[in-house]
Every structure is written in structure tokens, then in C-alpha cells.
Amino acid sequence: MAAELDFSPPEIPEPTFMENVLRYGLFFGAIFQLICVLAIILPVPKSHKTDSDSLEPKNSETMKKPKAAAPQISKKPKKESKKKR
């Protein structure tokens, strides 16, 4: 009776190429999500001068440019209501 039982581990087939791609893709996706969550939780101190400031010089004309009043085309004229008696 004991000779009939087979306690050897079951044969596990080798993973295919697509299974490997899926496994590593999910692994890297999880790491990317953790990095994004940590970027939200841990604030990065901002310096006074950024790279975009040094690349684009600021002119006083661009800073003080007045906003032009946009014409209100979408506004419909109000209809006159009838007087109630």
C-alpha cells in the first residue's frame, strides 16, 4: 500500500516567453507605481532658480502684458418678459 503512493513533486513546465514577459512587465509596473506614490508622498524641495528660468529670459514686457478683454459673443440678449396683470 505504501509503495503505491507517489510523493514526488509534480512536474512544473518551464514558463514560456510570453509568461516571462508578463511576469517582468507586472514587476516593473509595480515598481513604477511605487515610485509614483513615493513622489506624491515625499515632496522634493524646490530651488529658487529652476532650469526653465535660465533657459527663457524674462522681459518686463512679457511680465506686465495686460490681458485684452475678450468679447462676449456667447451671451444671448435677454428676452423681454410679458407683464403679469
Automatic annotation (TrEMBL):
Signal peptide: none annotated. The keyword Transferase does not apply. It is a single-pass membrane protein. InterPro entries: UPF0239. It is found in: Membrane. Residues 48-64 have a biased composition (Basic and acidic residues). It holds the Pfam family UPF0239. Residues 75-85 have a biased composition (Basic residues). The chain crosses the membrane at residues 24-44. GO terms for cellular component: membrane. It comes from the Eukaryota. Keywords: Membrane, Transmembrane, Transmembrane helix. Residues 47-85 are annotated as: Disordered. Belongs to the UPF0239 family. PANTHER family: MANNOSIDASE, BETA A, LYSOSOMAL-LIKE, MANBAL PROTEIN, PROTEIN MANBAL. This is MANBL protein. It comes from Zosterops borbonicus.
